[in-house]
Amino acid sequence: MATKLYVGGLPYSTTQDELQEAFAKAGTVTSASIIMDKMTGRSRGFGFVEMNSDDDAQKAIEMWNGQDFGGRKLTVNEAKPLEPRAPRQDNGYGGGRNWQ
Q1: Residues 30, 71 contacting (CB under 8 angstroms)
Q2: CA angle 49, 51, 57 (to 5 degrees)
Q3: Which of 45, 2, 59 has its CA nearest to residue 22?
């Protein structure tokens, strides 16, 4: 079963291909993605790598967590599921603030 990893602390210039190539040293990479800012189109400095097996994922964590990558220290761990957020309040003023 594939395991998804969170990779934080990426240099903003890192490409998805570079991320995939780096993690392929630990095992088979199913997918690699870098999260981009919607407004600027620039990297947000983190991404996700999906490894083919739990063993490959564990090797990748051991290999890359805390290591220097392009001048920045990486944080690598198993990705946690996205938790649901409370719905936004819109009172017509924008920003969700309650004006009285």
Answers
A1: no
A2: 100
A3: 59
> Whole-model pTM above 0.70?
yes
C-alpha Rg value of the chain to the nearest Å: 17
User: Which residues, other chains included, contact 27 with Cβ-Cβ below 8 Å and sequence gap of 6+?
Assistant: 51, 52, 53, 55, 56, 57, 59, 60
Topology (CATH) of 3-78? Alpha-Beta Plaits (3.30.70)
Q: Where are the beta strands (DSSP E) in 1-100?
A: 3-8, 29-36, 43-51, 68-69, 72-73, 75-78
What are the tens digits of pLDDT across the range 12-28?
999 999 999 999 999 99
Quick one: how far is CA 80 from the chain centroid?
A: 11
Distance CA 97, CA 82 (A): 24
On the question of pLDDT at 7 being above 90, the answer is yes
Q: Where are the domains of the chain?
A: 3-78
